[in-house]
Design goal:
alpha+beta; Aspartate Aminotransferase, domain 1; Aspartate Aminotransferase, domain 2; 4 domains; seven-stranded mixed beta sheet; four-stranded antiparallel beta sheet; 20 helices; 35% helix; disordered C terminus; binds pyridoxal-5'-phosphate
């Protein structure tokens, strides 16, 4: 917000800039979720963590947007990772961008000027009362040395329901867009009272007319910003609403059909769980609000801690980490602190199975550990002999094992207890990746199998929606001996004897979305949660049984069953030119979002239905998969052309299907309405097959030339 008035860091030669976009219309939420941003010079763009939306073309040559750099964290050589970010704050970034779209550069400048103007007015008024305001230059924040008056200021502020930032004898006051002139007068009024004066004795009108900005002219912003047409087109509510709806309409979401995204647990996010997030009582609270003003939140945290401890079988939780990967990092730092505390500073080897989620080795690398990969056997289980050999070889320096249970292959490892024992025998700790708790809750637990730490993805099993890539929450649970090391905080009192430092700036992470998981657990109860797990496993095995004659299922347990998800092997189709991507894209024509593609095994899809889907929806999905399999067979036996077929040309847009010209050897109906159910509710993909190579060359969406923009606004 300040940069609407100040010259931006890029112009004064900064290489990397980080910040928070909370000021762009995002509620405080007692700490989050908020989107941070990370910007760099052109030369570092390929080293940025996360994804970049770039431009490409589709099969008809139309403009299309596509995620570039998308295959890094989970596909690069695991120990080479430079970031462990998977779930981020996509939804909040979108909200902040919508704020910028609605207000545009002029509107944002006005908002910034108003904030700054009020801050200058407040500063001058307080100075007129005799206070010393220490910030010579400022945008929105004042710092007053209150000396002996600090106590009475605090008392008066509380009486007026105002929280300020007190440190020793200084008071910090920050104003933002939501601060009204009335609020500012309230502050002046009680500061006057503390000085034994009266606000009416001040010449406020005079101060108002004497307001001059506190920004030195050489730091004033001279350059334009937000010049792209999108920031200059939708400034009325009607236009804005239609713009947002037009984007929403391009999105195939859980509103349309099941999203069987293996390892991501796309389950129902019920309205009752979601609504309280919008309540002011939860959303309008500062992360450092005094503890006696946040008893409701504290009760929620206490109950959630208790429930999650019971679910995991652990002694305590930390609600601080903002994602699964951040939980991994926090948990590994706890393990590190435990070893250090015992004088074992050399213990820095993390054993990680080759099947692990990409964030595991990336988090271990960030925690300063050395990664040793453990093999898997042909059933997809950890190769216990290899694990034992490596644990013994590195016994002197073993820090931990990171193990996902049920495995990323969708199977309950039957030797899991033995695996944990081997690690403990060799002096290591067991970190269980609990992202897949949807197959465990109520039936087993990390503590039962012998793990010492785990994270939970509340945005998977515990119903926080994924928001297109975040926000999420990844609290960690620990066994008793690790409790003293759980993350502390520098501002809010929560540190234990041996706490590691905070892993996120807000003490309880993205606090406001914890209430979603709290509501889920409260409404389900123990029996409901256990039933959910059973249905998740039942649904997965139903799909497995319906599809196993059409697709080889890569791994299953000794009983021939999967856990909550399964991997379909599509590698054999390559022999007749069909790639797993073709199948994934073709599913769009059938009204389904693609399952997880090529993770954790290249050339496969991973399917996870969750307990939320009724049998009718599972059948619709299976029908689509079976129909696609018979299309693949037609390519194989030559009934369909090897290149010009519905799989290679998928997805089919409305424009392509209704064009005057149709050059394919299959019908338009086969293209767009391949099964009867599709005609009752057709989702039209908005672009055809996107060009990946073209997209990777055009990382950043460049703004149209200034002239075209000038024409548009005129
Ligand atoms: C989703 C997932 C993660 C990462 O969680 P994020 O919240 O995306 O960081 C880690 N491990 C497994 C097995 C997962 O499925």
């Amino acid at each position: 917000m300040a940069l609407a008035l100040l010259s931006p860091p890029g112009e004064w030669g900064a290489d990397i800039v980080i910040g928070s976009s909370q000021r762009f219309g995002i509620p405080m939420g007692f700490g989050g979720p908020h989107a941070a941003f990370f910007a760099t010079k052109e030369e570092y763009k390929r080293s940025l963590p996360g994804r970049i939306i770039g431009v490409t073309i589709d099969s008809a040559g139309n403009y299309a947007l596509r995620m570039a750099l998308q295959t890094r964290e989970q596909h690069i050589r695991r120990d080479k990772a430079t970031s462990n970010i998977c779930t981020a704050q996509a939804l909040l970034a979108i909200m902040a961008s919508m704020y910028a779209i609605y207000h545009g550069p002029k509107g944002i400048k006005q908002i910034a000027e108003r904030i700054h103007g009020l801050a200058v007015f407040l500063s001058k008024s307080l100075e007129a009362l005799g206070f010393h305001q220490e910030n010579k230059f400022f945008f929105d924040t004042l710092k007053l040395n209150a000396g002996e008056l600090i106590e009475s200021i605090h008392t008066e502020a509380l009486k007026n329901e105002v929280n300020l930032n007190y440190e020793g004898s200084t008071v910090g006051i920050t104003l933002d867009e939501t601060t009204s002139p009335e609020d500012v007068k309230t502050i002046i009024r009680f500061f006057a009272k503390v000085m034994g004066k009266n606000i009416d004795d001040l010449d406020l009108e005079g101060i108002k007319t004497r307001i001059l900005g506190k920004i030195p002219s050489h730091l004033e912003r001279k350059s334009d910003y937000l010049s792209h047409p999108v920031f200059n087109s939708y400034h009325s509510e009607h236009e804005m609403l239609r713009y947002i709806k037009s984007l929403e309409a391009k999105d195939l979401s859980l509103c349309h059909s099941m999203i069987a995204l293996g390892s991501c647990t796309m389950k129902l996010n019920s309205t009752t769980e979601m609504v309280p997030v919008t309540w002011a009582e939860f959303s309008k609270i500062h992360p450092f609000a005094p503890s006696d003003q946040v008893e409701g939140y504290m009760q929620i945290f206490d109950e959630l801690n208790k429930w999650l401890s019971e679910i995991t079988g652990f002694a305590a939780m930390s609600l601080q980490p903002n994602s699964g990967a951040q939980g991994e990092y926090a948990g590994l730092m706890v393990i590190r602190a435990y070893h250090l505390d015992r004088g074992d500073s050399h213990r820095n080897i993390a054993l990680i199975p080759s099947s692990a989620h990409g964030t595991n080795p990336a988090s271990a690398a960030m925690a300063g550990m050395k990664i040793v990969i453990v093999k898997c056997d042909e059933r997809g289980n950890i190769d216990v002999a290899d694990l034992k050999a490596k644990a013994e070889e590195h016994a002197a320096d073993l820090s931990c094992l990171m193990v996902t249970y049920p495995s990323t292959h969708g199977v309950f490892e039957e030797s899991i207890i033995e695996i944990c024992e081997i690690i403990h025998k060799n002096g290591g700790q067991v970190y269980m990746d609990g992202a897949n708790m949807n197959a465990q809750v109520g039936l087993t637990s990390p503590a039962t199998i012998g793990a010492d730490v785990c994270h939970l993805n509340l945005h998977k099993t515990f119903c926080i929606p994924h928001g297109g890539g975040g926000p999420g929450m990844g609290p960690i649970g620990v066994a008793k001996h690790l409790v003293p090391f759980l993350p502390g905080h520098a501002v809010v009192e929560m540190s234990r004897e041996k706490s590691i430092s905070a892993v996120s700036s807000a003490p309880w992470g993205s606090a406001s979305i914890l209430i979603i998981s709290h509501a889920y657990i409260a409404m389900m109860g123990g029996e409901g949660l256990t039933n959910a797990t059973k249905f998740a496993i039942l649904n997965a095995n139903y799909i497995k049984t319906r599809l196993e004659n059409s697709y080889p299922i890569l791994y299953s347990g000794t009983q021939g069953r999967c856990a909550h998800e399964m991997i379909l092997d599509c590698r054999a189709f390559k022999a007749y030119g069909i790639e797993v991507t073709d199948l994934a894209k073709r599913l769009m024509d059938y009204g389904f979002h693609a399952p997880t593609v090529s993770f954790p095994v290249a050339g496969t899809v991973m399917i996870e239905p969750t307990e939320s889907e009724p049998k009718h929806e599972l059948d619709r999905f299976c029908d689509a998969m079976i129909a696609i399999r018979s299309e693949i067979e037609d390519v194989e036996n030559g009934k369909l052309d090897a290149l010009n077929n519905p799989l290679k040309n998928a997805p089919h847009t409305a424009a392509a299907v209704t064009a005057n010209e149709w050059t394919h050897p299959y019908s338009r109906q086969t293209a767009a309405f391949p099964l009867p159910y599709v005609s009752t509710f057709k989702f039209w993909p908005s672009v055809g097959r996107v060009n990946d190579t073209h997209g990777d060359r055009t990382l950043v969406c460049s703004c149209p030339p200034v002239e075209s923009y000038a024409e548009e606004v005129l």
